[in-house]
Amino acid sequence: MPKKEIHTSARETPRPPVVAIMGHIDHGKSTLLDYIRKSNVVAGEAGGITQHVSAYEIEHKTEKGDVKHVTFIDTPGHAAFMESRRHGATIADIAILIVSAEEGVKEQTRESLKLINERGTPFVVAITKTDKPNANPIRVKQELAEADVFVEGYGGDTPCVEISAKTGAGVPELLEMLLLVAELEEFTADDNAPGEGFVLESRINPKTGIAAVSIVKNGVVRVGDFFVIDNVASKIKKITKTDGATINEARAGTPFVITGLTGLPPAGATFYVTRDKKELKRLVPNGKKTAERGQQNATGDDARAFFPLIIKGDTRGTLDAIVMAAQRLGNENLVIRILASGIGDINERDMQIAKSAKDTIVIGFNVSIDTTAYDIAKKDAVNVKFFDVIYKITEYIEGEVKTRTPHITVEEEAGRARVIRMFNKIGKHKQLIGAIVLEGVIPLGTIKIVRNENEIGTAKISEIEVDKSKRNEVDKGTQFGTLIEGKVTLALGDILRAIRIVEK
Predict the structure, then answer these.
(1) Is a pLDDT exceeding 90 seen at residue 54?
(2) pLDDT for residue 435 is more than 80
(3) Is the dihedral of CA 318, 321, 323, 326 positive or negative?
(4) Which of 314, 333, 361, 401 has minimal Cβ neighbours within 10 Å of its Cβ?
(5) What are the two backbone dihedrals, phi and then psi, of residue 186, each rounded to the nearest 5 degrees?
(6) What is the dihedral of CA 215, 220, 223, 229, to 10 degrees?
(7) What is the residue range of 268's domain?
């Protein structure tokens, strides 16, 4: 599809800001949004953490009595959702960087800050959990300064609000600050233009088909428009708000859901709408459609041992996060191979693919298994695992990787010694020598003999003696006598390399 950037025209009017809530896992992102929305999403999320990217539009009555709209994007804080947070930072006009007053700046805090800076997104720091006994906002500001974030009143001009999502303290001030930033940034849109925006998340509903949660950044999306992503066009038959209410149109700043799409769009994809057939033909030349992207097959040869996986998820963004997290869990001796991945319930096709590779595990995240697939899994002993918390998946895969990684034995040098004295031979393949340890440790066991920097053979140290005392090993600087067993006749100056066999 021809490249097209989201834009506005001379007929611009102010639009609600789109705000991404970002930060480390369990620092209170969803709890803050719950307070603002007067809902309880956290209780509905497995494990009490956000598992999906979501968006909500709220109304806020300002200190002057005006009613303003703000759209919030809630991004998962778990490490596996880095790409989801990247999309959130890209789509948002403003970011809230959440930092717990108890825990301070953490790994995903720094990562979120990096994404915000890469995008150049204006942001406000919200120090959460200030009602907790161990809260220390001053320490948080110090840690932020160490991360080159200098907040107002602490050597910089980055807005900072101390809040408690539990009591609501500071939340009105935070909303006022967001609206002030939005006013200064002058976010506008053309209400007469065809709608343009971004996809936040996509999923497959068995009854209604493919659905996409999206946000309008310019123009208007209406029922009857053609919704275009890449080379796929779908006619919009129904629009709902993210709370399920049916609407006829969605304007700039509004999050919405459309169902019945032709293809499954990736998170972060740009969409356009049109009613003009000529424009539609330009955007979708020759009626071309992309292949269904709900199912992916991985192929390729690798000399290492591999751990085959099939992963099914409930939404595109979550699936992508799980696949990326799983692929990072392999090691130099074991590669994670994703045989297939897709949206929706585990089905017969998944089972057939699973049987194509030995010891395949099928992972389902917030999905079920259909009857046919269940019967195949039971009959052919296909290992199927179900999860509703993403970190449980990574923990499980890490355990399997540890079990499945093949153990190899390698030689490691324990130490080196030099022959400094020769004694008589004892039998055909035994001789007594004196030596000094140059480095490391020389134990009983195998040695390699080096002469003039060339390895000339191997032998065995059968006995070690220091001052007529038997030893099992000697360390650096020690002179010792030893009985060597081997076919190579040693000479003064030879280097003895002590070898240990280590399993890895």
Answers:
(1) no
(2) yes
(3) negative
(4) 333
(5) 55, 60
(6) -50
(7) 190-287
